[in-house]
């Protein structure tokens, strides 16, 4: 008869109990209260609140800009992570530290800084606006802010996988006559894809709920540059708590569906490539 293994953490039942209580207090109960508050509206009232032209425009901007920002961060985050892992260059540690700056920087400070740079009289804005490209107080400004705050999620997710990826595999592929593109496509990318997809999902999730860094550079022009979190804040300032929770429910459902789809795609990819744990 095998001897029971003594574990450092408490047993399964106790650990599961702590986990469920902690998860309920921080996530399930607040979300449940949101749905319960929104249920005080009839279906017609709920639909009228969440489908006004102003709110629909905010959905389009928030989710559309978040998806685009996630895709941009996935591409450039991969390049940055690759450079930090595979190359040695002067100032590498400084660049590596700067990647985490959006994590530590207060979002309001980030918004003010981006606005100062991309405004009409800013360092960058003064150069590009004469050519007809306006960033501040436009949807493009929202995209710039979301890219800024989402980049670290991709870099820090992909970087450990790259560090563990053996370069001998790439050398073996090259010795067998594979080109650089073929080596990347058939050897490197399949190993990085799950982590890259996870980084994209994290960047998207952060971008959807971002508020502080966006409101300054967006300008908050109705039907043009208003994000959905701002619509919720506006409802709360008007003491329309039911309307605010109705919009929040839509954001929760859409975000959950998109993240679930990303996770299913990640699981399908892992199963297809034989990396399922």
How would you sum up this structure, described in words?
The structure is a single chain. The protein is an all-alpha fold and 277 residues long. The model has no long low-confidence stretch (mean pLDDT 85). The protein has 13 helices and no strands. It has a single domain, classed as MetI-like fold (Orthogonal Bundle), CATH 1.10.3720. Helix 9 (167-175) packs antiparallel against helix 10.
The biggest beta sheet reads:
none
CATH class: Mainly Alpha
CATH topology: MetI-like fold
Which homologous superfamily in CATH is the superfamily? MetI-like
Task: Supply the number of helical segments.
Answer: 13
CATH architecture: Orthogonal Bundle
From the alpha carbons, calculate the radius of gyration and give it in angstroms. Answer: 23 Å
Helix content: over 70%
Q: Strand tally, please?
A: 0
What are the secondary-structure elements, in order, as H or E?
Answer: HHHHHHHHHHHHH
Task: Give the distance, in angstroms, between the N- and C-terminal Cα atoms.
Answer: 29 Å
**Poorly predicted sequence stretches spanning 5 or more consecutive residues:** none
What count of structural domains?
Answer: 1
Overall pLDDT, averaged? 85
The coarse overall form would be globular
**Helix/strand-derived class?**
mainly alpha
Estimate the strand proportion: under 5%
Helix and strand topology:
Elements lengths: L11 H27 L4 H8 L2 H34 L5 H8 L1 H4 L2 H12 L6 H4 L10 H26 L2 H9 L4 H29 L3 H7 L9 H10 L3 H32 L5
């Amino acid at each position: 008869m095998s001897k029971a293994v003594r574990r450092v953490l408490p047993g399964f039942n106790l650990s599961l109990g702590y986990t469920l209580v902690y998860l309920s207090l921080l996530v399930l109960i607040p979300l449940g209260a949101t749905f319960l508050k929104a249920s005080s509206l009839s279906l017609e009232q709920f639909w009228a609140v969440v489908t006004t032209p102003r709110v629909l425009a905010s959905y389009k901007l928030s989710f559309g800009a978040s998806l685009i920002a996630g895709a941009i961060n996935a591409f450039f985050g991969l390049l940055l992570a690759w450079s930090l892992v595979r190359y040695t260059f002067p100032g590498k540690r400084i660049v590596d530290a700067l990647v985490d700056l959006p994590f530590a920087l207060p979002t309001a400070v980030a918004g003010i800084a981006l606005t100062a740079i991309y405004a009409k009289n800013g360092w960058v804005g003064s150069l590009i606006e004469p050519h007809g490209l306006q960033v501040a107080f436009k949807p493009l400004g929202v995209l710039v802010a979301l890219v800024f705050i989402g980049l670290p999620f991709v870099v820090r997710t992909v970087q450990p996988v790259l560090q563990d990826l053996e370069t001998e595999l790439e050398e073996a592929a090259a010795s067998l006559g594979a080109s650089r593109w073929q080596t990347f496509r058939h050897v490197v990318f399949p190993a990085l894809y799950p982590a890259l997809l996870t980084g994209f999902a994290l960047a998207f999730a952060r971008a959807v709920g971002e508020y502080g860094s966006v409101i300054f550079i967006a300008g908050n022009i109705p039907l043009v540059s208003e994000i959905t979190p701002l619509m919720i804040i506006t409802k709360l300032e008007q003491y329309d708590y039911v309307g605010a929770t109705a919009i929040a429910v839509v954001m929760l459902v859409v975000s959950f569906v998109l993240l679930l789809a990303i996770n299913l795609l990640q699981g399908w990819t892992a199963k297809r490539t034989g990396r399922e744990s």
